[in-house]
Amino acid sequence: MTSKEGYELLKAGASELGIDVNESQWDCFYEYMTLLKDWNTRMNLTSITEDAAIITKHFVDSLTIAPYIKESLEGGAPKTLCDIGTGAGFPGIPLKIMFPELKVLLVDSLNKRLLFLDEVIARLGLQKVETVHMRAEDFGRDPRFRNKTDFSTARAVAPMNVLLELCTPALKPGGIFLAMKGGRDEGDFAAAAKKLSVRLEKTDRMTITTAEGGLSEQTEAERIIYIFKKTSPTAPMYPRKAGMPSKSPL
Question: Whole-angstrom Cα distance, residue 249 to residue 239?
């Protein structure tokens, strides 16, 4: 795939979400994709390796929450987003590329992933972005972050009641957790939300166009964004010690 074809593919996907990608931003995405493919030959960062699939399944998918971020940044004070279990940097790095004024914390328990992200940050010249080597439970209990961030997000397959315990303690009261999900039923998470002092404000369903090996192999994929608002500081007992949220969900 040529750089021009990649740019057009990203522009089209982002446009469906109401987001405009300029050429300078595309240059950053292209460099990011190049680094991702290079590092992926030495360590397992992603099973998605074709350009069209990376652009649609990683970049465009990450931007599904960009409209909520964009709305909050307009005319307001600087905001901080923590990306819990960021892995290869999704959605944190794409959001940072689109919104340079957003401070981003990339949280992951595996240091070698963060070494990759440190190179991405350096090569793209990104400012106000930090890698944090911690488990999500420890991050949520750390006084440097607890009850202090404006947004949290996770692009994860864990059940919602687990994600709520991992991703909301860092939020300040009034902060927003943007949970990125596919189309499956999340089950009952009302009890967990109540214990963690968060309220489900909205659920948005959308479809994005994804591609496999090339532009001719496009399909539609369903995405659901759950928007939670934190109503008061997290109770002292949450999050529980590492491993407990998954072993014994609220």
Answer: 11
